[in-house]
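Human: I would love a firmer grasp of how sequence relates to backbone shape in proteins. Take your time, and here it is.
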Amino acid sequence: MTKDTEDPNVHRGPLPGMDGVDDFTLLSIRERLGESFDPVPAPVLDPADPDLDRSVAELRRIRDAISGLAHSGVGLGDIADRLGEVADLLEPRVPEPAVRLANMWTGAGSRRANPVGGQENPIAPPVEFHGCDDGSVMAEVTLGPAYQGPPGCVHGGISALIIDHMMGFANHWGGRYGMTAHYEIDYRSPTPLLQPLTFRSWVQEVDGRKTWNHATIHAGERLCVEARGLFLEASVAVPGRPDQRSTVGDGI
């Protein structure tokens, strides 16, 4: 999210009685702040390993710096050598995939490792989420060259990725849960890189196990993308714990 420390419309600091993400819903925030409140940021989840967060932060620096360097004339031979040395140090320490998947579901790992906004995921777009008093959720994001599709524009798949996650967040904010069953998206105008974008999503309709969502992306006042999604209440087995099932879908 773009740093906007002077924005008076964004709630800052911890909320009284807030225990974590699972307690971050419209109902619980209204109990604390009343019917009307400024956008509230989703709680920051404590890291399981601060060194992992530091490593991911450095990888993101590399990701942003190296994007779009073709034909730039920048010498990268020594950089490639150094990165190879780091990979050689890291790979022998990495557990097998099944163990890694199981570890990601320990504590808040599944949320921190998410490919949208996950603090432990180096490919995750830099998205931070806010809950709003009208029942919607929102994020303000500036995406760089690593996410380019058409010239100077955000790749449509990246827009879809973030929107799908935002819809999951909207479900959580509204006290619903579910996994994506159907999704349709309309690209109304080019979504620019290197400009602040406003993502917003909200629950439109609820019927038993079904939840319908709507979402938009705006660049300023211009509508770039809108989407509709259907989510179904469902559960899946937790990796490494075949006797446990999770209802956590896309979302915070």
Notes: Confidence is low (pLDDT under 50) at residues 1-18. Strands lie at 40-41, 130-131, 137-141, 179-187, 197-207, 210-219, 222-232, 236-238, 241-246.
